[in-house]
Amino acid sequence: MASRIRYGMVGGGQGAFIGAVHRIAARIDDEYELCAGALSSDPDRALASAQELGLASDRSYKNYQDMITAESARRDRIEAVSIVTPNHMHYPIAKACLEGGFHVICDKPLTVNSEQAAELMALAKAHKRILAVTYNYSGYPMVRQARAMVARGDLGNIRVVQGEYAQDWLTERIEESGQKQASWRTDPAQSGAGGCIGDIGTHTYHLACFISGLKAESVCADLSTFVDGRRLDDNANVMLRFDKGARGMIWASQFATGNENNLQIRIFGDKGGLTWRQEDPNELIFAPLGEPPRRITRGSPAAAEDAARVTRIPPGHPEGYLEGFATIYREIAAAIRAARDGNSPDASVLFPTGEDGAKSVAFVEVVVRSSEAGGSWVSL
Amino acid sequence: MASRIRYGMVGGGQGAFIGAVHRIAARIDDEYELCAGALSSDPDRALASAQELGLASDRSYKNYQDMITAESARRDRIEAVSIVTPNHMHYPIAKACLEGGFHVICDKPLTVNSEQAAELMALAKAHKRILAVTYNYSGYPMVRQARAMVARGDLGNIRVVQGEYAQDWLTERIEESGQKQASWRTDPAQSGAGGCIGDIGTHTYHLACFISGLKAESVCADLSTFVDGRRLDDNANVMLRFDKGARGMIWASQFATGNENNLQIRIFGDKGGLTWRQEDPNELIFAPLGEPPRRITRGSPAAAEDAARVTRIPPGHPEGYLEGFATIYREIAAAIRAARDGNSPDASVLFPTGEDGAKSVAFVEVVVRSSEAGGSWVSL
Amino acid sequence: MASRIRYGMVGGGQGAFIGAVHRIAARIDDEYELCAGALSSDPDRALASAQELGLASDRSYKNYQDMITAESARRDRIEAVSIVTPNHMHYPIAKACLEGGFHVICDKPLTVNSEQAAELMALAKAHKRILAVTYNYSGYPMVRQARAMVARGDLGNIRVVQGEYAQDWLTERIEESGQKQASWRTDPAQSGAGGCIGDIGTHTYHLACFISGLKAESVCADLSTFVDGRRLDDNANVMLRFDKGARGMIWASQFATGNENNLQIRIFGDKGGLTWRQEDPNELIFAPLGEPPRRITRGSPAAAEDAARVTRIPPGHPEGYLEGFATIYREIAAAIRAARDGNSPDASVLFPTGEDGAKSVAFVEVVVRSSEAGGSWVSL
Amino acid sequence: MASRIRYGMVGGGQGAFIGAVHRIAARIDDEYELCAGALSSDPDRALASAQELGLASDRSYKNYQDMITAESARRDRIEAVSIVTPNHMHYPIAKACLEGGFHVICDKPLTVNSEQAAELMALAKAHKRILAVTYNYSGYPMVRQARAMVARGDLGNIRVVQGEYAQDWLTERIEESGQKQASWRTDPAQSGAGGCIGDIGTHTYHLACFISGLKAESVCADLSTFVDGRRLDDNANVMLRFDKGARGMIWASQFATGNENNLQIRIFGDKGGLTWRQEDPNELIFAPLGEPPRRITRGSPAAAEDAARVTRIPPGHPEGYLEGFATIYREIAAAIRAARDGNSPDASVLFPTGEDGAKSVAFVEVVVRSSEAGGSWVSL
Questions:
Q1: Which of A189, A354, C24, C186 could cross-link to B131 by cystine, CB 3.0-4.6 Å?
Q2: Chain A / chain B CB contacts < 8 angstroms
Q3: Residue D162: what are its φ and ψ, rounded to 5°?
Q4: What is the C-alpha to C-alpha distance for residues D368 and C290, in angstroms, rounded to an integer?
Q5: Is-contact D104 D11, C-beta < 8 A?
Q6: Which positions 117-136 of C are in contact with D (Cβ < 8 Å)?
């Protein structure tokens, strides 16, 4: 294996959500090593968070400016920076990173307006640095599969693209209660001009374009704010006109009770249709004209090379498989740590022990005995 | 964070499946560090595999005996060993590890017979070492939730437990074609007396007991081998009698076409019933007597503390969310590595770039403009 | 039982679809008796169709004018007329019927423009006759349930209503091939100004209002015709603004491959959300704020009185249950008719015979014997 | 149309369930005419029930013996008799009917033991009369489709047949509360030796044989009674061995909370697998070996001739479509009856009126106007 890529992180300290996700994502394929961090806009929290993550104390920074200055001077300097702050800070941090010669991995949205976005793209080009934005849903195998199928013509000419992204976590005005995720997302100063449309509508839009290969030409939109006192839209109805005559709609809502994270894309051409639902991400429903719909699953023979390339585990093992396995490992770690001091782990630790293993061995034995006896009852 | 646990691995070299899963699982929560390995029964492949994983050359061993001897002598010796070999090797390796004072994380089944299992348990006890078996499905949040609900009486007295595990990858005699996974699993010398019942039936059995808290007392079984020339069962029909009068059935099959990895547990008591399906692992269907069935999802308010403890991401984000994110990171890594030499990454690299980010920023802008104009068409 | 209502039918002859549906619907509850008909605009076909249905020859009419005249003069005259012709004929026929003192049951749409509709309403009022339009989806038990739940406040204040109706039968230009259903539906002269929006969008609109109790105030629409040469829209994107501040969207399409008749309504208020899908009509998903979503099924204790009133069979027996039963009866009828002449029915007749019944009786016997023997194998 | 078949009914009076289902089934295709009845074992209830159904008073009988005697003497005598009594009465009634020269349509099970069944078969043969048993699930189009696919070899050689039928209506001892359906079904004197296995297990068994074309050779069964005081089994676990080496299991339960009427059959051969679920009866999942599973729907081009022959409505219109339509008709009938006396119908009558029709006409008009204006807001 080539050596790991050293990276730093801005944002993602205690209480944050997406920063931890970026770190796990970076570990899964063992391609990165987190070496530095300016993990919070609050300097004390930044340092405490870094300690918790086991960062070296001399690479735990109070703010991103310090990180850029200090890392630039190191021999083993980081190559890349993950930016996982509220939206309004993406621009200044990314700018400083690119100017300092660091690759940038920025959480979405890239910036809060188009001028900033254009400037960052120009900087990335000038400094020959990678500028990536984590529209993460484009990383799913069956999204890649869908894109490949459209590209190779399985759907014919695309006519209609319907996208939706329904959540319910903002049904009430929880931004008032100090819920950190809600408060910055509903604050125009931190989020930009779009609330729901910016936070989740953009995922839908990106995916619609990513899969269909189409370019949107114009929109007609009806944004609404239903929760009293909220400062940004929490429901977005949008009609779209794409190039090549295609049409579409996007619905995004943050109070659609019963929808946790219901992102869905449906695409129809003159030869067939495709449906992908994020809450059931391992399958893609393909309906070729005049034939029964098929369920194409991740890892199956029907999945294209583009999907296979980003598939880690076999078909039928939903991607949570890796997490379930990780939980067993985590609990074993707790037991090993306890054992270091001669203790037992907490009662909540439930990994299967040797005894569980022995019981299953015995189970196979009696099943085989029962069956060999022609199928009669055998005690365990 | 406490320091990582150093561990070694036996098996899991090139061409293996479950070894890579164990390594990813160990990385996800950043609790382990892979320091040593005897990764194949073929010494050359063992060394090549270790190099690919970036193991230090002096901790890359030709076989497990060497690993145990050498690691025992080191100051920074590994604490734990993951055993991911074919079944028949679990016993001698685990025995040697436990006798050497190492914790053991063994893939299932623990051993190929009950005598070996009993001996390993005794050794673990005598040496005060952890002996864990990776019945990984017990690590899923909603399995924990199910167990907690049974334990707190939500189902009342358990009457019936129905388990099934249907796969289709052995519908034909692929063990003859050199498919490595198939060939050892259908070889009694490597797998033990149970084929399908051992490979997947035991997962079902473990889960049935893990969730229900019941103990099986007797079985009546009908094992069959349908594929000509196969040496172990590929279909298992089993009826069970549990303690406290409960009854159950397990069906396991490896040629149930259309079933990739369809593990399912249903439990019914006198106050309600539960269904969990591994292919839709983020939900648990709970049907209380006389009321509409509810869909309890991972991460939702209805999920118990036992589920929350092993939940990493919010409701509605199926656990594949972390993998999708990891794919974006992997592709950015490829781009960064290419950039080191002034190159562009391969065309298959599809992570969202600054341009994608800019397009979405522009999208929000026009949507907001359209909506502010009362809902009229605005060009992009 | 009160005596049956005598009715006549205009349209619905050989080759038609919806007329047969109206006749079956009228028979299911045994409340009507078909006594007269002007079943086709082609007089010969009208008479042949009437003969096939077993109408008395003196009440089989060449056209609706004749039917109205002749029936008006009879003592046992029909009371009601079902109009199941192409859209453009609804108005003149309904007008004549109402003026003749007959109740009118008109397939949707009522007319092809608002002026005609207003005139018919006025006539119905003046003549004190029933004027009904078969927006049939409002007859489903779980649609009634949804309406009742909104009305009693289970969802709180309604914020968003999302409707869609996706079909795929017009993906190609089948109207050119002489397909009768397609040709009149895509002909402005017979259908009116709306194609897809009129044929299926109106069902969605009616249901959205029926369930939500809201009144639409304005629309912003984007109708498209994708199939070359088609004369009316085949895709409709519509944004709606309802009274009380609610918003909504309707998507209707006739080329959404893989969607046979996918009508779906989702309604969200500040206390909960509801989803009903016509292709799974026996269930309603209700998501109360902060609690797990529930599946309310037709006939279950959770279903309201409004649903129970229109429920014929128990929960879990999808409404096709009655049809399956009818098929058995139909095949037995074929056998009885054959037996009249001493013949056997056609080989396609598959109703369960005495022999099938005997086999099942024997099955129970051996199962009981096996179980009584403690669970051992018993031959059949 | 050929003339209708005149039939009589034994059982099915007030308070009964299946009798009404038989009558609706007989009406749907308009092939039968109910002319006589002995509708209850209680003579008064028999007469009251007949009156409610509108039977002629001279053909409303106190018991089946009277009906057979009187009808035999009539010129317009009935040809067939539907028997919808508790199980133990099937034999004497069917015997008398066959001996009297009437065709018999008997609800399942045919009889309570094999001797009776054999005798009825012999009588039917001797008298050349039809003896049918309403295993109604064999009348579903997609069950016919499944049978046709097995017969034409789409699945190859059948290896495994898994059947299940889970209900929850007998989770508690409701037979004690006077619930009529529960009390006779749990009474050995009325039901025979099998409780759950007889009531619902036999449906599963019939369907397993009907679809697979296999013959069961032996069973190994474990019947249980979980509800205290119940006199017959309420849970049945059965393993089966079929001819040609196939194996199978049947699980039937009447206390599987959350399962209303969950009958399911899965069949696997060496070339593919099929799944049919009664609660989603319009689809059949077909998984050919090595290809993505397909969803074959009733009425679609992929459905075989055997399914098409028993299909009444188009794909995507679940069979409840007919019932929804019937509800509209029923409510219109209520309105017409009320209008006869110059009254309005009850407030619960909700059929769409001319006003509803007019609103939808107006909706299409404004949608078209909005779209023609390029997509701008238009008021209703």
A1: A354
A2: 516
A3: -115, 125
A4: 40
A5: no
A6: 117-118, 120-121, 124, 128-136
Give the dihedral sign, CA B116/B120/B121/B125.
positive
Residues sharing a CB contact under 8 Å with residue D119, sequence separation 6 or more, in sequence order: D91, D95
Cβ of D237 under 8 Å from any chain B Cβ? yes
CA–CA separation, C176 vs D90, rounded Å?
A: 56
**And the tokens for C223?**
């109708």
Q: Do strands D272-277 and D283-288 pair parallel, antiparallel, or not at all (unpaired)?
A: antiparallel
| Minimal C-alpha gap between D293 and chain B (Å) | 6
Q: For position A313, what pLDDT does the model report? A: 63
Q: Where are the alpha helices (DSSP H) in chain B?
A: 18-28, 43-52, 64-72, 90-99, 114-126, 141-151, 180-185, 188-191, 196, 202-212, 305-308, 320-340, 354-372
Task: Return the residue matching tokens 């999302």.
Answer: C162
Would you call B25 and A322 a contact, using CB atoms and an 8 Å cutoff?
A: yes
Looking at the partner chain, which of C162, C258, C270 has a beta carbon nearest the beta carbon of A251? Answer: C162
CA distance B143 to D192: 40
What are the residues whose beta carbons fall under 8 Å from the beta carbon of B44, sequence distance 6 or more? none
Closest to D273 (Cβ–Cβ): which among B226, B247, B257? Answer: B257
Of A209-213, A230-234, A368-372, C111-115, least confident by mean pLDDT is A368-372
Strand partners of residue D297: D283
Q: What is the CATH number of domain D5-134?
A: 3.40.50.720
Amino acid at A112: V
Measure B371 CA to nearest chain A CA, in Å.
Answer: 5
Q: Which pTM value belongs to this model?
A: 0.89
Rg for chain A (alpha carbons), in Å?
25
Structural contact between residues B202 and A364, judged by C-beta atoms closer than 8 angstroms:
yes
Q: What is the pLDDT of residues A57-83, one digit of tens each?
A: 999 999 999 999 999 999 999 989 999
Task: Tell me if the domain spanning A138-308 has CATH number 3.40.50.150.
Answer: no
Residue identified by tokens 């007597």 is B289
Chain B contact set for A140 (CB, 8 A):
320, 323-324, 327
Taking alpha carbons only, the member of C66, C73, C76, C3 closest to residue C37 is: C66
β-pair type (B235-242, C283-288):
unpaired
User: In angstroms, rounded to a whole number, what is the distance separating the alpha carbons of residues A221 and B377?
Assistant: 8
State the distance between the two ends of chain C, measured CA to CA, in whole angstroms.
48
SS3 D226: coil
Answer for the pair C164, C263: CB distance below 8 angstroms, yes or no.
yes
Question: Are C295 and B296 within 8 A, CB to CB?
Answer: no
> How are the residues of chain B apportioned to helix, strand and coil, as percentages rounded to the nearest 5?
40, 25, 35
DSSP-derived secondary structure for B39-62: --SSHHHHHHHHHHTT--GGGB-S
For residue C244, the one-letter residue type is: K
Backbone CA torsion sign across C44, C50, C53, C55: negative
Q: Which parts of chain D have pLDDT scores under 50?
A: 1
For residue A260, report the phi and psi dihedrals to the nearest 5 degrees: -80, -50
Strand partners, C82: C9, C105
Q: What is the 3-state secondary structure (H, E, C) of C175-243?
A: HHHCCHHHHHHCCHHHHCCCCHHHHHHHHHHHHHHHHHCCCEEEEEEEEECCCCCCCCCCEEEEEEEEH
User: What band does A272 get if pLDDT is binned at 50, 70 and 90?
Assistant: very high
pLDDT tens-digit profile of D335-354? Answer: 777 877 888 887 777 677 77
Q: Confirm or reject contact between C69 and chain D (CB < 8 A).
A: no
Pair of tokens at residue D121: 């078969």
Tell me which chain C residues have a C-beta less than 8 angstroms from the C-beta of D252. Answer: none
Partner-chain contact D257 B222, CB within 8 Å: no
Tokens standing for A76? 């083993």
Contact B138 A320 (CB under 8 A): no
Name the nearest CA neighbour of B139 among B113, B105, B116. B105
Residues of chain B contacting D375 with CB distance shorter than 8 Å = 376-377
Partner-chain contact C235 A172, CB within 8 Å: no
